[in-house]
Amino acid sequence: MKKTVFMIMGLALLSPPGQAAKLVKANVAKDSKFVMHLDFDAIRTSKLGSTVIKQAREEEGEERIDAMKEIIGFDPFTALKSMTMSGNGEEENGLIVLKHAAETKKVLSFIKLEEDYRPTEYKDHTIHSVGKVDGERGYISFVNTSTAVIAPSRELARDGINLVNGKGAAKKLPGPIGEISKKAKAPFMMGYADLDGLEDVIEDPTVNDMAREAMMVVGESGDNLVMSVQVVAQSVETAEHMHNMVNGLIGFAALGQEDNPELKDLLKALKVSRKESTITVDFKMAVEKILEAVDPALEDLDVDFDIDLGDKGKDKDD
Q1: What is the pTM of this model?
Q2: Do the strands 147-151 and 211-221 form a parallel or antiparallel pair, or are they unpaired?
Q3: pLDDT (tens digit, 9 = 90+) per residue, 23-40?
Q4: How far is CA 51 from CA 75, 207, 292, in A?
């Protein structure tokens, strides 16, 4: 039954859970070059997310989920509120601020079962060091009853604690991420990258030669799934070239749409536009159409949390 904190992080990534837990500047460090925010509350209440979650719960079984909650201290489908990831682009420099409604004492009891568990103190907080993935440890601190920080080093975990406590937060959200978020009435994923600032870690130099910034939002508006991606090019000329290139790819894909109704619907849902040096790709499609297209995948959905639940998780017929 021993698991590392990375398993809990994995649940955070996979488990969508009200008021939506929106992206706020208080969870973003001043020197951040990239930000990714996942609103699990919004995913849980969205038409697409709620359908997938319902299917996953049915596959897993309520009895097993209740037993899991008793062991790890939270229902992974409801307890996680939001996750904000950010970093300055340096290697191993990424921080996660996780908002949750978990029973912290039970979660800690679960973490402490790990053989490589090591605690250290920082101010009035404990930083829990556990696990070894490829020889590297992970660090987590429960800063208050509803907020945890997860980092790849003690130093970054300390920075995360200070951030949550009101020190070192960004004065404003980077880039026009607030503007693009309006593309969806109920956004559940937003991201921003300062590509110029990430030049040292982006392996493809062509990206830096062509683009300065990139941002995206995914969510729902009414009955539609909405996704919008914006790229700010290095120049108007470069933007025009990128715009033509994207349209060319769409045109090439359109050659086979008559024999593929799903592709036809997909292309119809895409819209590419340009305003000076900014290229925008918008996608809007009815959630029902998407669910209809992926229904076989939903039928085969198999969520395995890989926890030894003992007698609690066994079927009555076992």
Answers
A1: 0.80
A2: unpaired
A3: 888 889 888 999 999 999
A4: 17, 36, 12
